[in-house]
Amino acid sequence: MAKYCGVISVGAVTGGGEVSAQSHNVLTGQTSSGPSVPVAVTLVSFRIGETFFRKIRVCQQFVSQFIHPGDNACIYVFKQFGFTDTIVAVKSSQFPSYSISFQRFVLMIFAQYFIGCLIWVIPAFLLLGWISPLLAFLAMLAPATYGSWTLWQAWQDIKADFP
What we know:
Layout: E1 2-10, E2 13-15, E3 18-24, E4 31-38, E5 41-43, E6 46-48, E7 51-53, E8 56-58, E9 72-80, E10 84-92, E11 98-99, H1 102-128, H2 133-161
Parallel strand pairs: 8-10
Antiparallel strand pairs: 1-6, 1-9, 2-5, 3-4, 5-8, 6-7, 9-10, 10-11
């Protein structure tokens, strides 16, 4: 986890909004849309102070409204699944601030292990399973544990800075 402070500068932004799956019935010719799913916002070029991020995500879609270019602020970042920088809190000097709730924190820890292990199970067992299944199992848990550890550190810093 890292806390970065300084003046915010935002370049390109991708994502945001909602996506819904559509189905087309060939017999009746009717098109129906499925449930809408929110799309994550990715800040493609983002600078805060002297630190530049090529790609950084926000933990929830609405968090991007707390990021204001030219604002002197601090952001709290953790590595999602071990490699994706994700903003979990924004402490602004001029505008409203945001931090994740405890319930969101617990769900993010759960997602680190559940989704992270699903992502890493095949590579871990293909690369290390022939040496030792225990070693492959530990390698599968390593990125999720690293992501959870950085989120725990972010949560500790957030609790200290947000009363």
